[in-house]
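ingest -> validate -> predict -> emit
validate: passed (alphabet ok, no gaps, 300 aa)
predict: started
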Amino acid sequence: MSLVPAACGTGDSVYDLAPPARPGRPAGTVLVASGADLAATVTRVQDAITKAGGTVTVVVDHAADAKTAGVDLPPSRLVIGGSATAQDPLLRVNQGAGANLPTRYLVRQAAGGAVTITYDSSDYVAAVSGIGNPGVSRVLQTEIDTVAAAGAGVTVLPMAAPLVGVTPTGYLVTTAGRSAVAATVTRITANVDGPSKLVATIDLAAGSATTGPALRDTTELLVSTPAAEAPLIAAAPSFGLEMPMRFVVWDDDKGVTQIAYPDVKVLAARHGLPVADPNVVRLAADADRLAKLAAGSAAQ
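emit:
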């Protein structure tokens, strides 16, 4: 349930009950209508992330990227950002949770002009990461709710769509690497070539010593392939929440470098896209190629 804390003179949080989720939403997502236009909503979300002590990592303009691939999309921007305080507790349990951190907020405009924000609940992030203790993601959920409410200009958020079929089993495709994290990240970067592009590199372990025990090396890379992504987002606008592709590289508790990315077919099925779609197949093949090259198990 997504709840928005209201002010209370006692210092305790008071919560308004949220309306139920609408049917047909991708599992674990929340969709909230914004009271502002797209540009203003994007700015509000960014400001709210910063105000919550977080950092805005990147804003991806799906519509602009789609134009480079010859596809017209309604305005759609993905704001990615959050705080170490919110995300580090999950990363200490499972560094693979970095595939869904920092939080992604999809701001899009429908044909009729209505603007919405779509994002994953912390319950979803915990579920696909195999984190069963709800206390681990509590701070993350508070931050997400605060940012989404400020971005949309509302005081009550809808409930998240039920976690039907959501499981950590098969969510991440994971490969062991032969080199240290830094060298593995360099390999991924070197092998991202046209028409794909590297959107961002995020050091998820940075600053973790200020929130608790320091994390082992954990880096996330965002890789975009507009020619394959745009047709899928056109068919299922909520799929913009999943793109660009995320690769997480980390040093595990045995000193082995792990490379992981969400299974594109699992992501597609979540948004009602056929897993046999040629663009899904292409994204999956590209991700597999990059992971194997990074691991040193494929020819350059």
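Residues 1-19 have pLDDT under 50 and may be disordered.
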